[in-house]
Structure formats: C-alpha cells, structure tokens
Amino acid sequence: MNNAQVETHPPGSGEPLFRYIAEQYQALQQEPVLYQWKINYQSPIAWYSGLGAGIAGMLFGLYFPLRDGDVSIFNPMSNILYCLGIIWVFYSRYLINANKIYHYHVTAKGIYYTERDDIPEIAFTVMRGVGWFGCIACILAAGLLGPAAFIGAGASALLAWKIKDMRPKIIEDVALFSTGHGVMKIFKEKECITLFSRDVHGFINIYCLPGESDKVLKLIYPYLGTYEVHEVSSWREFSS
Q: What whole-number distance in Å separates Cα of residue 197 and Cα of residue 23?
C-alpha cells in the first residue's frame, strides 16, 4: 500500500470523482495481477420488477370484461394489454435488469474491474431500429397534423430519440485496499463479498465463481487493515 492511497481522500461525486477513478484504474493496471476471473452474475431480484409490471398490465386487461360483465376476457383491448404485459416481463428482465458480466483483477493495492450488461449486440441493433422508426413516425405525424401532434406524443418522441442511440456500456471501477478502518461482509452461501472503507475509494461487491470465495478471501486478507468482518445469511443483510 503506498502513502498516496492512505492520505488521499477521493472526491465525493461529479467529474472529479470520475477522473479520480480513471487515474486509479490506470494505476492498478500497472500492478501485478494476483488473480483474475470473469463471472456472469444474475441479480436475485432480476425477475421481480418485470413480473410485477407485467402482471399488473395483464390484470388491467381483465378490468374491461370484469367491468362490463358480458365481454369476453379475450376481447381486442384485453388481448393487447396481455401481450404488452408479457413483452414488458421479458423487456425488463433481459434489457433493464440484464445479467452483469464482471471481470475482476486482484492486486496487492486493490481490485479493478469492468462491468457490462450481458445483452447481445443484436438486441441493441433492434432497439436502435425501433428508435429510428419512432423518430420517423413522429416527424411524419408532425408533417401531417402539425405541431399539435407532439402534444400527445412528446414523451414517445423523446424516448424514441434516446433509444436510437443505445449502445453497450462498459463501466470501469476500482476498490483500493485500506490500511485503516473498513467493513467486510461475507455471504458464503452465494459466494459474495462486500468491502467498504471510509478513507479511500474502497466500496465493492465481489461476486466469486462457485466454490472460490475462500480462495479470494485468502488472497485479499493480507492487504486489509482493521476491517470489521460480518458473515451474513441473506441478501437483505448483505445489501443493507
């Protein structure tokens, strides 16, 4: 651990923090790598938000026949809502809450890693096509109906403009080991470790390959300072 790591307090937010992370990321890349691994990680709540919204949409589709009494539950409006509900479940699961691919590198001074969504390029290509189609549709609507067309479709136009530029995003981050006070949480059942230190940029969730959490712990223990160690048995304890 060099003195700059202990004495330098990272900026709290904004551009200075991003610059600090980039500098530390480059610095750690110069260190010998003790161990590295990639893991495709699925969040424990990945399905819940999509299922909640999708089921709500499908239940709303039942509202029309229940309200009118004599309407089939498979009427055109309800069928559209059922389909939208099903589409939203998979859109939320595989695009909004996609699996994350982490690539960790452990060094004697800290851990640097990349994070990206596990989304195939074809999905971004399709979404960009949908975005361009939406933009063209809004322009045609404005040409036919005038500016009044955007009163009801303004949000759709903004969303389409955003979607047309969708690209895969790779996040680079670091977690420096602290010789001061820190907290470590270990969730062995799920092979997860959290490190948090107050004096350096040292927060990280480490998702280990099956059966390798003990190996990772043995690697990093010699470089940690006075860390409080807590073993937890649930995701709620781990994320709190």
A: 19
Rounded Cα–Cα distance for residues 82 and 60 (Å): 9
3-state helix/strand/coil string of 139-167: HHHHHHHCCCHHHHHHHHHHHHHHHCCCC
Q: Rounded to the nearest 5°, which phi and psi values hold at 221?
A: -50, -45
Q: Angle at which helices 121-145 and 149-163 pack, to 10 degrees?
A: 160
2 CB-side CA count, 13 A: 9
Q: Where are the domains of the chain?
A: 3-43+105-119+171-239, 48-96, 131-167
Q: How far is residue 64 CA from its own chain's centroid? A: 36
Dist. CA 198–CA 225, nearest whole Å: 12
- The Cβ of residue 105 has, within 10 Å, a number of other Cβ atoms equal to 19
Q: For residue 209, which of 221, 192, 185 has the smallest C-alpha distance? A: 192
Report the distance separating Cα 110 and Cα 224, nearest Å.
Answer: 9
Residues of the chain above pLDDT 70, percent: 73
DSSP lists the bridge partners of residue 116 as 101, 170
* CA 128 – CA 168 distance, rounded (Å): 12
Segment 30-58, tens digit of pLDDT: 999 999 999 999 988 888 877 877 787 77
Alpha-carbon distance of 117 to 129, in angstroms, equals 20
Assigned token pair, 135: 């933009």
| CA distances for 159 relative to 50, 163, 206, 212, 228, angstroms | 19, 6, 34, 42, 45
What's the pLDDT band for 165 if we cut at 50, 70, 90? low
